[in-house]
Amino acid sequence: MTSFSIDEFQSIATGTLGRIGEAIAARYIERNLQWQILAQNWSCQYGELDLITQDDEVVVIIEVRTRRGANAMDLALASVNQRKQEKLMMLADLYRDEAGISHTTPIRIDVVGIAIGNNGLAQVEMVRDAVGW
Question: Could you give the CA distance from residue 125 to residue 76 in angstroms, rounded to a whole number?
């Protein structure tokens, strides 16, 4: 688990807690994993994908879930229920088609949980291959 101070993100992502979490996740991915970010907040009429990244030959869809307070990390990760997983799989297929990504290119869906404590520190936890096809 990695920690960030949310103070540095207040100016990057003004607005909702979710947007701050997405900025923290993007920073984590760039700094710690050194993956290329292909798109942020890709949307279509059916919904939105938070982050789309490249991990070697794999396109990785990142669902970011941000929560505050007690048990924030557990709540963040548990919020990706079966219905949300099905929607993410559908959106990943739509993104693949729109971006012209070959159906032989592997796509994986990861979840990044962001827990923001009262002390202003954000804990980051990543669950790889969190959604089964």
Answer: 10
pLDDT at 7 over 70: no
Residue with tokens 């799989």: 89
* DSSP 3-state of 60: strand
Contact 19, 30 (CB under 8 A): no
Token output for 130: 């969190």
pTM for the whole structure: 0.87
> Of 65, 78, 74, 59, whose CA–CA distance to 129 is shortest?
59
Beta strands in the chain (DSSP E): 2-5, 36-44, 47-55, 58-68, 107-116, 121-127
Count other Cβ atoms within 10 Å, centred on residue 13.
17
